[in-house]
Amino acid sequence: MSSLQFWKPGTAGPGSTLDRATETEDNVVPSAPLSSAYSIQSARERLPIFKHREKLLYCVEKYGVVILVGQTGCGKTTQLPQYLYEAGWAAEGNVIACTQPRRVAATSVAGRVATEVGTMLGDEVRITLTLSLSN
Predict the structure, then answer these.
(1) Mean per-residue pLDDT pooled into runs of 10, the chain (135 residues)
(2) Could you give the CA distance from residue 51 to residue 81 in angstroms, rounded to a whole number?
(3) Which residues 6+ apart lie within 8 Å of 43 measured at CB?
(4) Rounded to an integer, what distance in angstroms lies between the CA atom of residue 85 and that of residue 60?
(5) 128 — alpha (psi -120 to 50), left (phi > 0) or beta?
(6) Separation between Cα atoms, residue 97 and residue 78, nearest integer Å
(7) Nearest to 95 by CA among 126, 119, 67
């Protein structure tokens, strides 16, 4: 019967030759940080909505109402406002608004869009929370 082996953080993992000493050397290539513009743009382009960007902008320009339906995580909520912003829809004091049913979702979406736009929350991207009491 084999005994269980536990890995102690800070030491070489089971079957691993990589330890903290080699991490400080130049032979380990780190991945691009999540905050870099390159990785954010790359992630945006991998979302399913990206290939429909021009068609979406055309529909918003041509029709008074556009209903967008897509799977969770396809980029509807975070990308469409950015497409509109990049196309100049926020010029001349116009506002691009995105509504969310819950406070946590609204905060999360606003933070994500601000990060992707490359601004601080409260500058180009703002959040307004309201309290609705129903009887």
Answers:
(1) 58 54 46 61 90 94 92 92 93 90 91 92 89 65
(2) 15
(3) none
(4) 12
(5) beta
(6) 11
(7) 126
Fill in the amino acid letter for 131: L
Q: Tokens representing 44? A: 């945006």
Q: What single-letter amino acid sits at 54?
A: E
Q: Quick one: tokens of 21?
A: 């000493």
Report, in angstroms and rounded to the nearest whole number, the Rg of the chain calculated over CA atoms. 22
pTM (predicted TM-score): 0.67
Residue with tokens 């010029």: 91
Q: What is residue 9's predicted lDDT score, i.e. its pLDDT? A: 61
DSSP string, 27-84: T--PPPPTTSHHHHHHHHHHSGGGGGHHHHHHHHHH-S-------TTSSHHHHHHHHH
Tokens 């129903």 correspond to 134
* Amino acid of residue 57: L
